[in-house]
Amino acid sequence: MSQTEVSRIKTPLVPLATLIGRELRNEKVEKPFVKYGQAALAKKGEDYFLIKPDCQRIPGNPSTAFSVFAIFDGHNGISAAIFAKEHLLENVLSAIPQGANREKWLQALPRALVAGFVKTDIEFQQKGETSGTTVTFVVIDGWTVTVASVGDSRCILDTQGGVVSLLTVDHRLEENEEERERVTASGGEVGRLNVFGGNEVGPLRCWPGGLCLSRSIGDTDVGEYIVPIPHVKQVKLSNAGGRLIIASDGIWDALSSEMAAKSCRGLPAELAAKLVVKEALRSRGLKDDTTCLVVDIIPSEQPFLIPSTPRKKQNVLTSFFGKKYPNSLGKSANKLSAVGVVEELFEEGSAMLAERLGKDFPSDPNSGIFKCAVCQADQPPNENLSMNSGPFFSPSSKPWEGPFLCATCRKKKDAMEGKRPIKPTITV
């Protein structure tokens, strides 16, 4: 599947604090309405979705509202998809410092998404089940959209100018060379299925296990080189708004991003989702579970997203793996797209936990207790324990330069990097 259809024009970097400051100073900028629709057709019954439009950063305070939308495309069973649907949001929110204002909350969100995905994966593996799931997880706070994804479900943004932006990266071995290199460097093997006579058929897979994806939640039986560390992208829309289409690969195997966006322009979100599924069915037939969420982020005075004539693309680029941008947010960027300004605040896809958690993870050295940066478990200190070394870390590992990790999460980190095999501890 092509990862093109992204029009970008580079501009100077703008910190998130500056953008939020503009909102506060501009009385005309109000919080948008979020309207959504959902549609699905089942082939195997392994797709699940999450819709939570009424979350609050501070319980009981409507001004702190945000929305969450997610797709979970399970494989080899449904247990991983169900588990992620039930636990991922809670695990993400637990990794954000309590009492953070909106600016700090949004800045902490990309790192919290990494911690939440990894924690959910560890917890599921402890159940001893072997299914897996892709995840595309979208958080909308005002005009700011943050997307985290593993696997090949996808989220696209269709703006008022008719330019379609890809907010996720497909982790399919067939199309992602950097992921193939990472898997083999971590001890996995990549190849096609061998049939009688030595002929190779089908897409590239990792062995053992035969999974076509390089990232997911679950898949205990495949290998720890299949990592749950998500690609994360955060953008801020202009007050012209935009439309998100979040869907499982049953849609994207049938429709390009441009085709999906074009098929439902000018329609309310609820009808738009049905039209996208219908168009995918007409194009390819029902080959797989097909699930679609359409989310419109629109000005409060508009009843629905008003389409405009698409502009001719100026440049077409693929999404980059592990792209880094130096500024006050660490790895972030600001770009323009379409008629209204879509400013890119953050993007990172590295599969290395040290690069994703950073060295400045929030901690309280005066509390007398270390908190694991992934699972948030408290660990009382002892004379042999420090933030970056000690008996809780594998002796075979190089010194860990990131924040404190408990013994379980440290072992998970080592296993994902191919430093040592790991077998799940099954909790009965």
TrEMBL record:
Catalytic activity, as annotated: O-phospho-L-threonyl-[protein] + H2O = L-threonyl-[protein] + phosphate; O-phospho-L-seryl-[protein] + H2O = L-seryl-[protein] + phosphate
One family name in Pfam for this protein: PP2C
Gene3D superfamilies linked to this entry: PPM-type phosphatase domain
Keywords, alphabetical: Hydrolase, Magnesium, Manganese, Metal-binding, Protein phosphatase
Keyword DNA-binding: no
Family according to the record: Belongs to the PP2C family.
Name used for this protein in its record: protein-serine/threonine phosphatase
